[in-house]
Amino acid sequence: MVSIAQKIKQKALELGYEKCGIISVEKLDGYKEKLEERIQKIPESGGFYQGQQRLVKFQEEFPWAKSVVVLAVPYCGYYIPETVRGHIAKKYLLDTRIDENTKEYHNSTAFEGYMRELGIRTATNRKFGVIGLRWAAMQAGLGLVRQNNFFYTESGSYVNIEAFLTDCDMELIETTKLPPCPQNCDRCIKACPTASLCEAYTMNPLKCVSFLTTFGGRDLTKEPLAAKFGDWIYGCDVCQDACPMNHQKWVGNKEFPGLAELSDTLKAEHILRMDEQYYKEIIQPKFFYLMPDELWKLQVNALNFIDNAYEEKYRTSVLEARSSAYPKVREMANIIFQRRSL
Fold first, then answer.
1. Which domain holds residue 334?
2. Does residue 255 belong to any structural domain of this protein?
């Protein structure tokens, strides 16, 4: 007889998931220790990781949870338009977690519906997770975490991890055959533009380009690392792209729904001319690590990119930004104006 766990895995694979494993909630206990380890290595990161404590205490909200179904689905099959390539991180451009236009989103909701049809109670959080996703995926045997702190399957690190708490007592652990990081390889560490990735498996999130252009970095004019962001406006892919274990993993032959039409509006000069309504209705729901009232932050990010990659074609955009309704945008534009003697 096919067990419920086996039925769940079979359904996941039918829906296009690359991996599916199931673990008991007890196997998540080590996540707390890993968080504490990170804080000990980088004490100034304590405030950042404080927000992750909810992932340790998930049973306070879900006392009925007995197991976790963990899944991985690659996004490396999608094409990245040239206008945003190297400026907006792939993960954010191809975020299927809440994008109802994507096949992956519908597969996720269909998968959850299937479990409920089996009489299983479920809970998830598609934006931020209900548990430590990378840790759970490792415990489920779906792959491994490499030196750059990203989780890898056979598709490399370009995978989304999903997890569903269930009230069903079951387990189905996979076995990964992925090789460890090559001995003495430090490409990801050397490539990190802000030295956030300071040693293997160790990073300072407060120095990370992705953090500073999404969750944090709300005063870039005073951020000494801003000049090292290079061409990044939102997020960063450098440590993943530098990794030899990601070599030739990006296929990029499928069109992501709506991305071709959206990509032109994400040029720096167009971001600076973006109106509030378009930002709130189109951009912010996709890049939800920014708040609905933070168009100004995205525009400051765009100006920082312009400063780092300055060309004469950006002169008009900088001059216009000096008259912005947002004080932080005006401040950044004026700094560039003075620095470039415009």
1. 267-342
2. no
